[in-house]
Amino acid sequence: MRLLRDFLLLIWGLASFSVFGAMPKFLCASTTYIFQQDQQQEKTKSDKSSTDPFIHLLNTKTERHNAYNPVEKVFLHSDKNMLAAGETLWYSIYVVLGPSHQYSDKSKVIHIDLISPDGEIALSQTHALVNGKGSGALEIPNNLAEGNYQLQAYTQWMRNFDEEFFYIERLHIHNAKIKQEGYQEIKEEIDLQFFPEGGHLVADIASKVSFKAIGSDGLPRIVKGKIVNTIGEEIAILKTFDRGSGFFQLTPKKGETYFAELDDGIQYMLPEILNNGYVVTINNRDQNRIKVTVQASESLRELPFYILGHMRQRNYFHRKFKFDQDQMLKFEIPKSNMPSGVLTLTLFDSSRNPWSERPMFIYNNEELNINTKLDSDEIIKRGKVSLEINVTDRKGNPVATNLSIAATDLNQIKKG
Length: 416
Hints:
- This protein has three domains: 2-69 and 275-283 and 298-362, no CATH class; 72-174, Immunoglobulin-like (Sandwich), CATH 2.60.40.1930; 191-274, Immunoglobulin-like, CATH 2.60.40.
- A five-stranded mixed β-sheet has the order 3-9-8-5-6, with no helix packed on it. A four-stranded mixed β-sheet has the order 1-23-20-19, with no helix packed on it. Strands 14-13-16-17 form a four-stranded antiparallel β-sheet, with no helix packed on it.
- The chain has helices at residues 2-10, 53-68, and strands at residues 31-34, 72-78, 82-84, 88-97, 109-115, 121-128, 133-139, 147-155, 167-174, 191-196, 201-202, 207-214, 224-228, 234-239, 245-250, 259-262, 267-269, 273-274, 278-283, 289-296, 305-311, 314-321, 328-334, 341-349, 354-362, 369-374, 387-392.
- Helices cover 6% and strands 41% of the residues.
- It starts with a helix and ends in a 24-residue tail after the last strand.
- The protein is built from two helices and 27 strands.
């Protein structure tokens, strides 16, 4: 997991991974804990106070890491995502700092690449940035083959980190004169990826396993099949639900190997099964709280563990737990002190080794309300258009912001 790897780098030097050797058993009993945060705490204020030495040390290292490794994020607002060869793609550019989402004044140049269906760079541009903002246009050549392309944007600073954090927007380019030769006739190989909740499959512990089916063009695919063991017994049904994604339940057995077998007979091996470990399950459907369930192998249930929650490089939750006599531990985390964004919960064992990680999206209804009004319903070709824009927060208070507007002729192209 990418985020778990980042945490490993962050706490490098604190401890090394441990391996335990006891046979786990089925977990069933449970206890629920509810943590009430200070309601007067600011929504964007992180939770740093702790008397536990490990949590204090981790917070200190996190702050030091963030101070020397600021994160930039890029967003492009393009006027359309379906266009024909010979057209021009217009876009506005926004570069912000990760924790605060304020405009970044660190990077002065942004790189824009148009990636072809075969993964090659078809076009490349650079644009100047002024206080984190810019704009540009990409002229699509008449000789560019039809297909699904990707618009990629990043700063030079972002190249120090994983390329998966680059901004990516999918585009479809139509060209009736030039087709992608043989592109539709090639039998593609589907990339079927598996994501056990919390990061690992652990023997004799029930887990939810999500999966994603991706084609050679990077777009989702619909797949159907089944999960089987080494002797071909059907364990679960495999079927995509939405945008190439789906999930199934699995209680893996020690020493067993499992495969996903599609209807066309192609098999994909599931991730390796750990003999000992933790499984973290999240229920994020409640608007006000996150419901967390932690299960562990028998050899780990006598030892304490930590749960830490980070969002935008800040600590919003940290607690030390112990299973006591129960085989399953449940607790709830209120969302009232968190901003909207991706919260990542990481489980550390008593030796300070990260075992499991679970990201989730927190939505606290913080979007802006944008209302527009034209000065006239009569639109003249190439004429001047006056537009009144009113921006408020969810309570109706006016908000100062920067906006970009894209206007497209609906008679010429369909907005994707």
